[in-house]
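Subject: Interface between my chains keeps coming out wrong

I've been trying for a while to get a sensible model of this assembly. When I model each chain on its own everything looks fine, but I need the whole thing in one frame so I can look at the contacts. Pasting all components below, labels as-is. Any help appreciated, I'm running out of ideas.
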Amino acid sequence: MSAFTVDGLHETAPGAEAGGEADVGLLAGGGGGPAALRPLLGTVLAALERGAVERGGPLPAGGPREVSWRVRAAAGAVLPEVGAGAGAALDALVGAVAAGAADPAEPLCAAHLHCPPLAVAAAADVAASALNPSMDSWDQAPAASTLEAMVCRELARLVFPDVEGADGAAGTDGAAGAIDAEADAGARSGPGTDALADTYTDTKTGAGAGPDALVTSGGTEANQLGLLLARQAARAVGGQVRVVCGANAHHSVHRSAWLLGLAPPLVVPTPRGVLEPEALGVALDGLEGAPALVVATAGTTDTGDVDPLAELVGVARGHGARVHVDAAYGGPLLFSERLRGRLAGLRWADSVSFDLHKLGWQPVAAGFFAVPDGAALRPLEHCADYLNADDDTEAGLPDLLGRSLRTTRRPDVLKVAVTLRALGRAGMAGLVERTCAAAVQLAELVAGTEGFELYARPALSTVVFRPVGGDDALVAGVRRRLLERGQAVLGRASLGGGLWWKVTLLNPLVAPSDLAALVKLVEEAVEEAVVKEAVAEEAVVEGADA
Amino acid sequence: MSAFTVDGLHETAPGAEAGGEADVGLLAGGGGGPAALRPLLGTVLAALERGAVERGGPLPAGGPREVSWRVRAAAGAVLPEVGAGAGAALDALVGAVAAGAADPAEPLCAAHLHCPPLAVAAAADVAASALNPSMDSWDQAPAASTLEAMVCRELARLVFPDVEGADGAAGTDGAAGAIDAEADAGARSGPGTDALADTYTDTKTGAGAGPDALVTSGGTEANQLGLLLARQAARAVGGQVRVVCGANAHHSVHRSAWLLGLAPPLVVPTPRGVLEPEALGVALDGLEGAPALVVATAGTTDTGDVDPLAELVGVARGHGARVHVDAAYGGPLLFSERLRGRLAGLRWADSVSFDLHKLGWQPVAAGFFAVPDGAALRPLEHCADYLNADDDTEAGLPDLLGRSLRTTRRPDVLKVAVTLRALGRAGMAGLVERTCAAAVQLAELVAGTEGFELYARPALSTVVFRPVGGDDALVAGVRRRLLERGQAVLGRASLGGGLWWKVTLLNPLVAPSDLAALVKLVEEAVEEAVVKEAVAEEAVVEGADA
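Reply #2:
Try treating it as a single job with all components included. I did that and got this:
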């Protein structure tokens, strides 16, 4: 082989043959990967530490223009002719991104459904990067595909506990159930079927029915899958599906309909924040029996409200409509015995989106799309001879291509599997409960603060409030001011024609003192803005006088 | 705050208040994140090392059933009631996934466009997991969004070097160009525009034209975007776009058309492996001027062949058709001065897919979708008041929602930025050249081996061959036998009505001895299969005799 030196990766590039000195430390995988990663990870951790100190708060001060300048200055040329070397590049760029992060692990970074990841999940994710399994064929991910099948089945059973799968396993102790089921399947099965077929739903044969889930990039992709399956079901009977959702539904419902070539969703007003059964009934009556998909929400983005799922399913069924529930936010309440009642009726949906990168504390992405019966996933069946040729599938190689609309796909399931195993159901429940309790505490604090108006008692972990009487410009201005100064990341919500601040609590470690500090900060910013405006008005008056 | 203990994360769960002893080490971010990650990363690296030793080859032996059993045994219950703790969970599950991986860092794992990631990229990716920026709004990713804009512009300029952007920067030293441009923009701009607007294309205003790119989950999503923009362009003039592609095109072209509600692509036969200009002309003639999108391929999945892009663009333009080039595989040849000529004509496309998780050595995902003018991305414009309200955008907060069809989105760009900076253009070029040279070497070895037939001289890094004269069952059987035994991961390709072995070389460290070992392994497996068949036939004859 000709000798190409890999400039920039090593202090000395001795122009060695492949396998020579210059190649040591190049790759993350193989036997030498961990040794190559060790010093580089040290550099990353040091840069993260330095960046957090440099930032000194929930986000960098200065606003977009200044942050942009600082990143450019630190980063240098994006694609220099000669590389800077691994250590220097990691130090500069990880440091810049850390110093310029809106870090959700900081208690005052609480605007969005943007969670602080668990250390255990972030650590597990390194193995996904290093081994790089790709989830589109078994021979790129032999073990990871088994793990994905196990986790997907288990999480689907959490959503649909009543539905008995072909393997008869239900409840939370699914792995044991799955192993029993496999022994079972071994007894039942002739040659040509295999252990995995009983775990993964085979989209070609529908084998392995019972609750199942697909891994998605988030609620947006999961909602898209919900609409897509409804589109295909309607097409199968020669119809066009109409999506019906509340005004409180996530924007991705609209975007998915557009992407899939469907008519824009029929939007039902939600004056009380949730989709109401009566209003839904009226909307469905108007469709006169045309195929419809009702999209309900368990945890709206603006307020965390949960639609009355059981009643909505009843109304939809009465009209022959399908139901997809976007539980991207609220879904993980299922881990908690105390809180799961808030999702009553979820189990009767035709499909459910839920994310573990919101409540669930995973690094992005960790989305899921669950169905009560894996056979429902058959419309996603897809063949590409190099990945799932019929003779390979018949010979026992699992067919994975129907498990996603993506082809190459990262094993996001690994970090999820490690987290669930590390914390257990009780540990996950504890974090969910703690986070929701913090929201109640913040709501009480806001309600007790003169000059602030609380929107409602929090349904999940979102607290919405504003200056008494409302003042849209003030709300928007205070939010931007806190961002510019690097003091806090607050969200915003337009509700009932007015603008509100939104605090989405997703940090299970938030302390009472953090919540008090947040309220005080907003109070001070309001006061300052009001004073500033008064001064400006006075100046105008004086100017007029002069 | 009520005290919820986080069972399973710690040996002792003292039921502390938030912020107490039980919480130390919980989160990956914040000031304490790096200290929490350090020991857990040590556990991960040890488990990766152990798993590689246990596997002892490119993939685990035993085939799907046995691998599945081993993973289940190691994993235990997916969701136990009480957690096993972070260390135990990482050790068990990372170990199982490593032991059961098809590791592309092993030279005999060479079936798919499935690359061994660089250690520097995998290390950088940890920062993405720990800080968890989400790329759907500035206030979730202040620095990461700037970095993404910089990298996207730079890579787009690599694809479209002729096109002068509004900032006048072209060529490879883009960061310097961008900074100049910004100084420029500062001089030109009034209040309300900002530094970032000159880097990110603003989909609302079209500001910041010139080549631009979006980050995607891979070639599949990028191809989908190419079709989507063509669909919208046709709709804008009241038409329906027809996709026209070669029989050699990636399956995602067909799947995207289905997803988007378009007619199935018109498929042009490619008897010589590439889409031929004459045949394309005939196909376009048949459409009689209806809006068309031609999808060409720069690096087919089966053989790595590159369509004659310049000629195809000429034919398409002559028919008023748009051109999308799927350069998911071949795109990174642009880094190499010696090899980029193979992509002549790419720069005249309307849009281009290219991945850095193939040639580019990134952990999945690292896809890009490039356009010669960022204004072309406007149809992706999308508004969600909580993420990009007009008054926020007017006040200078960058609008990121039009940068993807996803909402929550991991900063995959960080690892890419670190890699480009670490290796430089020359370093990337060296790896690409080295990998392509290895393919030529393997092809020569195969051509010189009695009993093997080489399909063609490799166009990129894919080598296709079969037993002389062809024997589909033998090809499929040998491939599966090598998989079952954990000896090698070979791919397969159906070409000209016959089945071939496919070796996709993506490991820049593959040595001549590895290539020789691979050829020998296939030879032996063939011999064994032929002997086995002969024995079986003899047995049948004997049985008939008995």
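Reply #3:
Confirming on my end. The first helix of chain A runs from residue 33 to 55.
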